[in-house]
Amino acid sequence: MRRRLWWQICTLDVRVAEVSSSEPFIIQPSLHTELPLNINDISLDPHIGELSPQPGRSEMLLSLVRIEISNFARRIVFSDQFCRINNYGMMNEAQKCQAIDEFKERIEKQYLSHCHEAIPLDCLIIMSSRLILAKLKLAVYKTRPNQHPEMPVRANYKKACEKFLEQACELRQYIRGRRWLWLFQYIEWDALAYLLLDLCITLSLPGLSSNEFITTPWKVVDGIYKYWKQQPDVHRDRGWVKIEKLYSKALSVKERAQNATQTFQATPSYCSQEAHDQPEEPSNGTEMQQQCESSLDSASAEEAQSSASTTELPGAGTACEWNASLIETYWEVAGHGNEGF
What we know:
By secondary structure, this protein is mainly α.
């Protein structure tokens, strides 16, 4: 019981550091207590001299997974200074990602392989564990304000955000496990804000094709946004106001891109339309060619004018000013100086 209590305190220490954008209070020299044994509560009898961990699944499965992940996160998501104080080995981004993959493989084999998909709590343990590990990788990829404050766009971070939000949706949509969801409440402001920013920038680019439009992560973003919009307690969070601003901008750009695509697809060829409208009278080839060239020149002028107008993105200011405003809003959500999760 002493081990269980101590490691629960350590887990809460990491969680508080995450929420408060600080660092854990407990340092590594204090972590000499061994992990709790993988045994059921009924085995904790004072008359039993020495306990042995039982193989497979026990009542401690969820707690052990959370303890292991929290302890591992100390080496991954906090500052270099924190790692030096705790005598952790310094790792670059690639090494951290590799460490996460190796740790995930061990957790899957040691713990999650004993879960049964027919048991709701076991399913939640599997989904929540993978969600937290995805969040660790998200923290590794995340651009810090002191690195590239003017444009925090990274392809690998975008993919990590999409994966994280998809797993969060999957967890919340698991109906049989809803009574335990309060244990796994994570507010995904960073990932949601980043994808909204990416959508605003991507959908405002000229020449966006319908295929590119379909592949945008709007569906998962829209689902996450609507979920949190139905949670009144979250609306008191100052980050929610910024999320609504980014969502409103992204929705505006999305609708504008849709309208532009539909207009382009619905516009018939000028030459073929005029040829269809003309009565069937003899006409020399030179005159027809001049009419086509004149129509195409007119169409090109209209297209150029339309393209020029779309460089002015929704809202006040030029495209550059508008993007700068959105990026500033993103950093307000992501948090300046946040070196934690």
